[in-house]
Amino acid sequence: MEKVSGKVALITGAAGGLGQALATILAAEGYQLIVTSRDATRLNDVYGSKHLQITTDCSTVDGAKHIFEVANAHNLVPTAFTHCVGNIRLGALHRMAEADFTACLAANLFSAFHTLAAFVGNLKTAKLAGSAVLVSSAAAQIGTPNHEAIAAAKGGLEGLVRGAAATYASGGIRVNAVAPGLIDTPAAASLLSSDLTRDMAARQYPIAGIGNASDVAHLMAWMLSDQAARVTGQIWSIDGGFASIRPIVK
Ligand SMILES: NC(=O)c1ccc[n+]([C@@H]2O[C@H](COP(=O)([O-])OP(=O)(O)OC[C@H]3O[C@@H](n4cnc5c(N)ncnc54)[C@H](OP(=O)(O)O)[C@@H]3O)[C@@H](O)[C@H]2O)c1
Fold first, then answer.
1. Strand, helix or coil at 69?
2. Ligand 1 atom index nearest CA of 211
3. Is the beta carbon of 37 within 6 A of some atom in ligand 1?
């Protein structure tokens, strides 16, 4: 059987809020999808019998490689990759438990490193070009109270994006990231659990409000597309101006 390499997209963390939004957009754009989660039941609840569903923990080397072993067994070579794995661990530096910091690094940085490595390695073997979009955070770009762990993890991810973009540019592999502010997904549920906390969070942003997964996913889908063929090594903010501007004080 011929390997399918045109319009095949891998979405990790696909049962999450952003992952689901991307699946909707990329499927509508004609991509064949490979979706991953650590939980087979959750994937099945979200996608039913649609897409190639792979259960794996991509924060380990073996877990990341497993994705491509299964994809290859189905004769699929993903040339587009969106990495939607991550968590939000907040707390002041001196109070953060070692286990929480380690979990933050595993979910946000190790998963990105290992899965991107497996994705580009698979493309090199197949001698194909491709495009990856990872997810950073506004907290990696501007000091934000109690965000030390997530800032450290996402700051590492941003360095990974630039380094990998440089290494693989000549092979036609583009690597970019988006850096959202707060978006309304399960990861942020505890921060948006009441009208009061939601309103306080929304008022932090120069363009007041909470982001939504669909807007972030549309930017990521564009970064994957041929219209972004000359975009690589970029971290694009989508945060209501949080990391880059100060509004007029009224
Ligand atoms: N929501 C926000 O406010 C916000 C803001 C800035 C950046 N982000 C980033 O946006 C991305 C998508 O998150 P989301 O908002 O869509 O949250 P979400 O709904 O919680 O989805 C994140 C997914 O990551 C997976 N995951 C979590 N910890 C993991 C671990 N240790 N190892 C492997 N997989 C793990 C989970 O998948 P399974 O449990 O199904 O395996 C989960 O479904 C993340 O990188 C997050 O850091 C979110």
1. helix
2. 3
3. yes
Q: Can you tell me which atom of ligand 1 is nearest the CA of 182?
A: 3
Question: Domain map of the chain by residue range?
Answer: 8-238
| Ligand 1 lined by 218 (C-beta under 6 Å) | no
Nearest CA to ligand 1 atom 20: 187
57 lines ligand 1 (CB under 6 A): yes
Give domain 8-238's CATH number out of 3.40.50.720, 3.50.50.60, 3.40.250.10, 3.60.130.10. Answer: 3.40.50.720
* Cα–Cα distance list, 204 to 130, 185, 186 (Å): 37, 18, 20
Is the CB of residue 42 below 6 angstroms from any atom belonging to ligand 1? yes
Label residues 53-62 b or e (16+ Cβ within 10 Å = b). Answer: bbbbbbbeee
Could you tell me the pTM of the whole model? 0.97
The predicted-structure confidence for 127-178, as pLDDT tens digits, reads as follows 999 999 999 999 999 999 999 999 999 999 999 999 999 999 999 999 999 9
Q: Atom 5 (ligand 1): residue with closest C-alpha?
A: 182
Distance (angstroms) between ligand 1 centre and the Cα of 225 equals 23
Contact 119, 83 (CB under 8 A): no
Record the tokens describing residue 23, joined without a space.
Answer: 């699946």
CA–CA distance, 148 with 163 (Å, rounded to integer): 22
Name every residue whose Cβ is closer than 8 Å to that of residue 133 and which is 6 or more positions away in sequence.
81, 82, 83, 176, 177, 178, 220, 223, 224
